[in-house]
Design the sequence.
């Protein structure tokens, strides 16, 4: 997480201020629950809420105490006692530090997910708009980087839409996975605290109860969470790679928006580099990398060890902040992408009609040619075209072995671009539920 | 995937025989659908089914053809034509190789998932049985490898049960993700094939339709799948690590089953090494590693490149076969785990009662001691115990500053082990839905 | 490791036959050393060599014994006793299984490295030959996929040569790292065996002595080894990616060799897909992935646990066999690469001279224009070219603000392609030590 | 990189101030070289040095310019012109941004390596001191977490010393790999700049010349660098894991230093948790993870794309700062580790003499028992000991089948602990070059 690739709203989730505020809420809710159960005085709980809600927690003061006691939660509670007064001794009764820390981490991840879901929604909206805009913009489909058959630019974007819609569903599921609360004590047995406190706090914090914890919330939940972010990052990389390809000098079917004052290169003023999508490719690598330590965090020793903590202090912010930034950047790129339909058409026409070869092949077999014969006939007319010696349509019409099966008109019909787009509506309906925006 | 860590049923899913059988089914179903649409003769479709269903595909023959034509699907279709006769020319009409290959891969992953789900069910059954068996077997809970508070061995297993139940749900979801079928042609536009063929084949193969494909089924689905297997592997590692710890010479609370004829070490006959769970730790590393290339596979170029293929030829079998083996091995370890409750009790008693310190701390604060005072009082009596100079209970009773707050009986009550287990039923109900097996 | 991506010589290193032969050699050398030290009878050592050298170890028999005793080295020693007779009891005296297993693994890695080094030498030879062939073949250099300045195709290959020469040096170093032998007993103290036995066996097996082992050879050596293979794989990916780009329909500056009988696609006969380099991209992902578990293997518990073993049974063969295959495939691709200098020239001319813009910029500043002015002058003439409205040279000559600084001849001189190649010899000398092949 | 896990000296290497200072030095040296070659006026070069050396670069000002021109190097050069005046137009002549950026990154990595090498030296010194201190402190060696044979605590540390000495050599090599300079222009052809400028700057900056660059310095160098850091991190994890094991309640052979004011747990005052080494385990996971994106950075497109940049902005600081912190923390842990030789002895005696079983086994075979018989005899006496029914020595002496081969004195001799340490000096000499500190 570095400022260059960060957005303030997500960064704020990981600030000490936010963290201490969540700590306070958890502690205060727990105190209320304990008061409801008659374990601590009702007045004390009220006092905690009253004083704590009004207070601004002093991060530097807490840090100073932590340097002395070398324990972050004790430091916070000490500071809280400075604010609340003697009633503070009823706070944290029967709880263990991890009850606060783990539940807080999950609250942060849930909030981060809310932002990320909004990011994906924005991206989906941009993709949808551009997909409908270019629903029937002809472009060549490429497999292996080689021209294959015509598709439309809208279909490319529809694919991306469907992919990010899957990402959204995965993230909702991953968010649900980490939306748990544990207030279960030193080894998760509720020895010193009633399970009803956990239930109360969970509900108040918008979480569900962790069915069985062991001081810590089990880290398979978080492994799944960060793995999900890694998959989403991989989908970002896919779309970014597509755009980088389209912006290549020789292809130039689309370009990232290039602002007026922007200088592309200190030396080559004509250059417009797809630096945003290249950047996204790099950011995707990072978010993907963070999944590995999250998975290694699962196998904690016995009821817990604290090896996960340093990892999470890093990947918690790094992963969510970077993904938030990347999604927003991708949305902006899609939104403002400069599309060149004329270049798409030019590239489509580039190979002298060879993109229609499969259709010719099919027509031949439908008229009775064996697959092998049809293949041979298509191949022998395709090769000269490939070498720049003639166009495919003319050559086919002049090949007597071909015209045995197909009339000139039938051959020409194979070169009708519209033929390829007859099912675009079907696909758009599948993806967007409608054929119109 | 090596024989030593493989089970035949999973291996069979990845055999050439199985693969070609699935290819045949997809091709034959597609031919039937084409016949229903009037594109190819009904008789031809029947003939394909009749001859193909009866035939055994000759793997060596197909391989020989592939060496010549350097294309696996063409090789198969050529062999199929040898079996079916001239009607074979109606097979694969308007389809592209990836239609067959990608759908087949998904069928294999779906079947592999069925086996893995059965594996998890077996593991869950073993965990549940042992959890109830040891529901109230006292054992020390450890955080940081250090004695914390009492828990029960059943609770440890209940935690594992809850974790693998989550794994099961994740796998069901991951299976659903890859259970799609694409018969959409060279760039996914259905230019040469009716989308209804895809719908027909999907239904017959137990899959859903891929909403928008681009010659290939998008690889974010598979990235999510293999990431999910990686998370499951991490949970295996967690339980394996727990058992390895329990079998340590100094702990010896449980041991892997040791068969009569087995030799532990060529040189140290008394040694019983937790080799199965150590092995599982290694296997988990492998399954985890396979997730990375699966994620790198997502960003294929344009409508497809074939870089994913070599990866999937390896991780398809390697990941599922290894995880299948690991789950089965873990189930066997859990099922036959030799548990030593007497050693658990011995370890629990090892620290002269210090495990009850938190309870004493709490009792002191509840009687009005400040947190700081309580902490100090507990600490000054705990330290001699730690140094082996006395037992905690006696020291506390003799500390006048303690007895100002707590009577001897009240101090003794803090040492009641049962106190820690009062909510075991609550947790078991949460996890298993019942307090009894 | 699957047959499709394997070559027999590397596979043979990992066969049971090879493994048992190495086991035998280690055991027999150790017996000789023990005999030299007077610990076991000289005759026994001779008998072991005589019988063992003549014998073919029966893999199935050893496996059958292992299934019974569940210990691979004991199984082998039992079989060896069947071959050697009673003198076999002097074999393995004071040794532990890992002495044999770990040293064997290292012997296999050393041999695998020898093959890999030969692979790299072959690749270097092919790169060098093609680099000199195309030392001055003009081609456009691209940054961000956008045309930048002219380079030569030979320079591209020289870069690859330099990169793989670094890979070679790294592999030599990695091989040296794993070329160690440990015969040090159960915890590495030589309690039951003289260190001179280790020294003797090490020398005979072409290894150096592991200075301090702990039953096992420390796994940081292997982590470094597999990490090095991963880096080499990444360099393979780089060159493969370059070729994939060059073969794109719109670029088509080079193509993988396409054999006469080969069919590119079942449906699009004109297609020549860069499937070999795409395949290499995938294989690189796999070799890279194997580095992670190798690193996780380092932190074995205490003097050893066996979690590394399953990992190494997989990545030992998988990583070396895959890399061997990939290097050989890449060599073949480079060796037979079809290069299209005319297309390179065509692409170079594609942007109407804009690639010379930096030179114009420089010439302007050298004649006294401020950087900002020069930039503005270049930019305003470049933009029309970019939009297809004229060529750069003509526009510059017609721009009075430009001709204030540069004469028409001076402007033209900026468009001299040869200018860019004046230091090619310098670079070739740096890389190949010579300017001629 | 977060403050909690950072040390100021390493953080400073990655500050904007340091970065701009290195940029300045590279630009100024290049200007001097250009002046020496007569390309720019000597006075201009002197002015640049004079003004630039005296100036403090204004990070906020540069950032403000960058926000406008969206190019970091142009922003810096603009600011430099503000400081230097009109002579600044001679700066950066014929160079491209990457010449500055890539060379700077390498300078930072070289400096970071110097710090890391110093860290390793400190660690080695601590390990050596403690190794000699405990050269003959008896402790049980464990394989699989199970007692094996006696070793010494000094040998454990000697192993760690040898491992980190290897790490040092690897880091020196990795540092050498990235210590290169490129001043070669837009695609690395030196079209607009003389290679002698590169040579001059390289020498002045303490780097070697990159033999062939392509606008960028090839990223296989950096992949190797970060992979090396990842291996070092894995070795940190190994030693950290050893210490965590030793501090377990049941083992307690060593403890992390526990400062007077430190509170271990808010609730369990007797707990001394190995939080530092647990933390190191987590940090190792992070440094390991950073190697993956570094490897993915290798395959840049053509002569360069900028996808590596975001990755390196993160892992450059994150990886070196984290490793620096981890090495220093580990050194402190080793330096102040509280060792309990009495507990080591207690654990050694724990298994009633079973640790001597291999020696008995060997003695029996040396007296003529077959391996199988010896194994059986040892096993039948070991099993009762294992069950707590007697001690091994007594049982062996009372076993007539044993005493057929060995006299009571000979059996007793097998239980001599000193026997295991006779080669400690050999190993220390191998590792430290001496038997005394």
Sequence:
């Amino acid at each position: 997480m570095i400022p260059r690739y960060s957005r303030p709203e997500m960064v704020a989730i990981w600030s000490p201020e936010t963290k201490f505020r969540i700590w306070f809420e958890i502690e205060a809710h727990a105190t209320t629950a304990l008061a409801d159960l008659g374990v601590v005085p009702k007045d004390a709980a009220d006092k905690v809420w009253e004083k704590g809600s009004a207070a601004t927690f002093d991060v530097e003061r807490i840090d100073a105490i932590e340097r002395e006691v070398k324990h972050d939660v004790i430091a916070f509670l000490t500071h809280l006692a400075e604010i609340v007064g003697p009633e503070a001794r009823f706070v944290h009764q029967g709880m263990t530090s991890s009850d606060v820390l783990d539940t807080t981490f999950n609250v942060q991840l849930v909030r981060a997910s809310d932002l990320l879901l909004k990011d994906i929604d924005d991206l989906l909206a941009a993709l949808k708009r551009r997909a409908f805009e270019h629903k029937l913009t002809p472009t060549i489909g490429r497999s292996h980087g080689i021209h294959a058959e015509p598709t439309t630019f809208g279909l490319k974007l529809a694919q991306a839409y469907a992919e990010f819609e899957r990402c959204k569903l995965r993230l909702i599921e991953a968010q649900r996975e980490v939306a748990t609360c544990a207030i279960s004590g030193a080894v998760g047995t509720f020895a010193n605290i009633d399970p009803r406190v956990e239930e109360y706090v969970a509900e108040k914090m918008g979480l569900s109860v962790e069915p069985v914890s062991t001081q810590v919330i089990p880290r398979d939940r978080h492994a799944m969470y960060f793995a999900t972010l890694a998959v989403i990052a991989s989908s970002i990389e896919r779309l970014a790679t597509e755009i980088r390809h389209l912006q290549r000098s020789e292809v130039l079917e689309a370009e990232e928006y290039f602002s007026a004052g922007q200088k592309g290169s200190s030396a080559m003023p004509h250059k417009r580099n797809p630096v945003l999508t290249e950047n996204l490719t790099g950011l995707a690598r990072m978010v993907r990398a963070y999944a590995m330590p999250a998975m290694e965090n699962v196998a904690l020793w016995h009821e817990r060890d604290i090896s996960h903590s340093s990892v999470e202090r890093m990947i918690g912010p790094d992963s969510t902040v970077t993904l938030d930034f990347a999604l927003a950047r991708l949305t902006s790129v899609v939104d403002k992408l400069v599309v060149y339909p004329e270049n798409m058409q030019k590239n489509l026409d580039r190979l002298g009609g060879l993109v229609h070869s499969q259709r010719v092949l099919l027509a031949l077999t439908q008229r009775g040619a064996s697959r092998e014969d049809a293949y041979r006939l298509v191949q022998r007319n395709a090769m000269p075209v490939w070498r720049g010696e003639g166009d495919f349509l003319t050559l086919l019409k002049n090949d007597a072995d071909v015209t045995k099966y197909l009339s000139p008109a039938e051959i020409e019909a194979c070169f009708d671009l519209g033929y390829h787009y007859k099912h675009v509506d079907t696909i758009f309906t599948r993806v967007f539920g409608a054929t119109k925006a």
